[in-house]
Amino acid sequence: MPNNLKSKIGLGLWKIPNDECADVVYNAIKVGYRYLDSACDYGNEKEVGQGIARAISDGLCQRDDLWITSKLWNTYHSKEHVKPALEKTLSDLGLDYLDSYLIHFPIAQPFVPFEERYPPEWLDDPASSQPAMKTAPVPLFETWRAMEELVTAGLVKTIGVCNYNTGLLNDLMAYATIKPTDLQIESHPYLTQERLIRLASNYGIEVTAFSPLGAMSYFELNMADSQESVLSQSVVIAAAAAHGKTPAQIVLRWGVQRGCRLVSKSTKIERLKENIDIDNFSLSEQEMTDISALNRNRRFNDPGDFCEAAFNTFYPIYD
Asked: pLDDT by residue (tens digit) across 49-71?
């Protein structure tokens, strides 16, 4: 990926409605985004592909200008399902290769054929009288070996993982023949994850933070309280006033200034522009320290919470 600040801000495609998605992708590319963060589970990869194709056709960019990431869903962890899952994603996106392909969660679930349900989502049998999430006995080692074969085949440039903790990352680095280049995790001022980010850096792995504005991604899902917005914190508001920026721009600048890439979602052109307009100022060391001090280890996207609440299965992956 190009090493400039704008390339550090990606468009996150989670929760973008299908009927808006192609236009959002097109507009994001038009205003300067070159990093797109997609996934099978988001259910909108065909529309993402349409937006990319239109942008390329209109001369806004070339394919090589873009960095496109997608993710392997939980139901495709067995070695025989990894390549077909990628090929389905490539077909939907209208691409010959991905720049990065990530294991979405360190969670294996029973295989669901494409023709039966796609994306498969979390429930094993949604039509059941008591629908629940189920897991499958597939070791992450097996899944990673199949991911490595995608690189060897030239279908993806790089591979990585999402939602891993320090123990899983240490284990992965012990057996990986092709090393992960990217670790994607939830991180924001309420969840700084400093030890995990430091460990990844020691391994030479780049960290991408999703939900970089914290609770903002979760209000509509009832997974965060309206009082939990980091944008209303006094240290953020003071920095915004000092630099003539919005609170959101301050928090995003904090994220990239600490060395992370970010994926942030918006459907509005004005907000898309705002989110990448953070390369003309820097936060002071004291401002960085003050914002980091907001950490409360508050994780909004936690399978240990939402799997039980929404899918009737207790399945924590973090302590």
From this structure: 999 999 999 999 999 999 999 99
Q: What is the pLDDT of residues 166-185, one digit of tens each?
A: 999 999 999 999 999 999 99
For residue 184, list its beta bridge partners: 162, 208
Print the domain residue range for 194.
Answer: 5-311
Residues of the chain with pLDDT under 50: none
How many structural domains is the chain composed of?
Answer: 1
Measured between alpha carbons, how far is 145 from 275 in angstroms, rounded to an integer?
Answer: 36
Residue type (1 letter), 316: P
User: Where does residue 62 rank: exposed (0-12), middle (13-18), buried (19+ CB within 10 A)?
Assistant: exposed
Q: How far apart are CA 238 and CA 234, in angstroms?
A: 6
pLDDT value for 6 = 54
- Within 8 A by CB and 6+ apart from 62, the residues are 56
Residue 55 included in any domain: yes
Tokens of 208: 């991408």
Catalytic residue, chosen from 26, 33, 35, 42, is 42
Token code pair at residue 87? 């090929």
- Report d(CA 183, CA 196) in Å as an integer: 10
Q: Is 203 a catalytic residue?
A: no
> Identity (one letter) of the amino acid at 14?
W
Residue at 249 is within a domain: yes
